[in-house]
Amino acid sequence: MCGRFALFTPASKIAEIFDAIEPLEVAPRWNVPPTDAIVAVIANDAGVRRLGLVRWGLVPFFLKDKKGPPLINARAETLLTKPTFRSAFASRRCLVPADGFYEWEKVGKERRGWFICRKDREPFAMAAIYETIKDDAGARSGSAAVITCEANELVAPIHDRMPVILPRPAWVGWLDRADHDAEHWLAQLKPFPGGEMLRYRVGPLVNSVVNDTPECAVEVPC
Predict the structure, then answer these.
(1) Does CATH number 3.40.50.920 belong to domain 5-101+123-151+160-193?
(2) pLDDT tier, 216 (very low <50, low <70, confident <90, very high otherwise)
(3) What is the C-alpha to C-alpha distance for residues 23 and 26, in angstroms, rounded to an integer?
(4) Cα–Cα dist 113/82, whole Å
(5) Which listed residue, 132, 151, 178, 207, has the most CB atoms within 10 A of its CB?
(6) pLDDT for residue 64
(7) Within 10 A of 20 (CB to CB), how many other CB atoms are there?
(8) Mean pLDDT (whole number) for 146-155
(9) What is the mean pLDDT of the chain?
């Protein structure tokens, strides 16, 4: 799964990388937990991309009371079979920028955190789906789930799942609301090459969501 990630690259650079309008200012984050507001890249019907804030935890369109456990991840293997995800996968796809994500391994009674990122330390795009809902007052808000797949050879020793990281050539089609070829996109949801990523141990600060400082992502000896 993907249960914690970091995005500390400035929004201005994220907007440049994703060729998106930047209508918001966001603080750098080193330890983003579920249910927090996260940055998402979403395109409109004309293909114009924008950066927006959505809740990390998908609220399905049919959940009228908007309650229930946060659906922070959507398994790629179930996107076409689960009603919770099928409609969003067909026409409400987005990208969630990240500088890296965390996974944990259990060694005895100790829970050890790892930070996983690109070798070049550039931000990457996690594939995601989103929903837009209205509250009782009519105000609209978005929510999203990050799509996961089987882990690559770098992540597998720590966890059997990882977020789907989409390469840049796939971004245009993935964000195209008129592209309903779900079978095509399902075939693209594969593990990112482990040889293009790196992982390193981090300290116990990241274990608590109250900690959100650069020290969370600092490498410590194994």
Answers:
(1) no
(2) very high
(3) 10
(4) 31
(5) 151
(6) 58
(7) 23
(8) 98
(9) 92
Matching residue, tokens 């330890």: 31
Alpha helices of the chain — where are they, by DSSP H? 11-17, 83-91, 171-175, 182-188
Strand 29-32 relative to strand 73-75: parallel, antiparallel, unpaired? unpaired
Annotation marks residue 110 as catalytic: no
pTM of the model: 0.94
Catalytic residue chosen out of the listed positions 94, 103, 117, 216: 103
Q: Which of 2, 94, 149, 216 is catalytic?
A: 2
> Tokens 């795009």 sit at which residue?
125
User: Measuring CA to CA, which residue among 4, 126, 145, 125 is closest to residue 61?
Assistant: 145
The ranges assigned to domains in the chain are 5-101+123-151+160-193
Q: Name the pLDDT band for 106 (thresholds 50, 70, 90).
A: confident
165 against 111, higher pLDDT: 165
CB 144 within 8 A of CB 130: yes
